[in-house]
Amino acid sequence: MRTKTKSRDKDAAAAGSALDSRLRRLLDQYERSLIVLALQAAGGSQKRAAQSLSLLPSTLHEKMKRLGLLAARGSAEAESLAFSSDPQI
Questions:
Q1: How far apart, in whole angstroms, are the C-alpha atoms of residue 40 and residue 83?
Q2: What ranges do the domains of the chain cover?
Q3: pLDDT of 29-73, one tens digit each?
Q4: What is the pTM of this model?
Q5: Phi-psi region for residue 55, left (φ > 0), alpha (ψ -120 to 50) or beta?
Q6: What is the CATH number of domain 2-83?
Q7: What is the pLDDT of residues 10-32, one digit of tens each?
Q8: Contact criterion met (CB below 8 Å) for 52 and 41
Q9: DSSP for 31-45?
């Protein structure tokens, strides 16, 4: 009986991990959308975008870094992601 319990625990842990991973991706996509929209509304100003999101500029910068919005800064891809009217998320 212990073997079945261990197996169920492993299955539940794997399902929980998959759900956590999916939820994290969805939350990241949503957060990225909010940041992109705030940057668009602020004309690209990170300081004004941070204010509109009620964040410190340093917090916004860290979030942008984590979400890959700074990685290719200056490239055509980064410009289209950060400032397009229809963000590809």
A1: 6
A2: 2-83
A3: 999 999 999 999 999 999 999 999 999 999 999 999 999 998 555
A4: 0.64
A5: beta
A6: 1.10.10
A7: 776 677 788 899 999 999 999 99
A8: yes
A9: HHHHHHHHHHHTTT-
26 token code pair: 């969805």
Amino acid at 53: L
Q: How many CA atoms lie within 13 A of 31 on its CB side?
A: 19
Token reading at 66: 């984590």
Task: Copy the structure tokens of residue 42.
Answer: 């602020």
Distance CA 11, CA 69 (A): 35
Cα–Cα distance, 42 to 55 (Å, whole number): 14
Q: What whole-number distance in Å separates Cα of residue 45 and Cα of residue 34?
A: 14
Written as one string, the DSSP assignment of 51-87 is HHTT--HHHHHHHHHHTTSSTTTTSHHHHHHHH-SS-
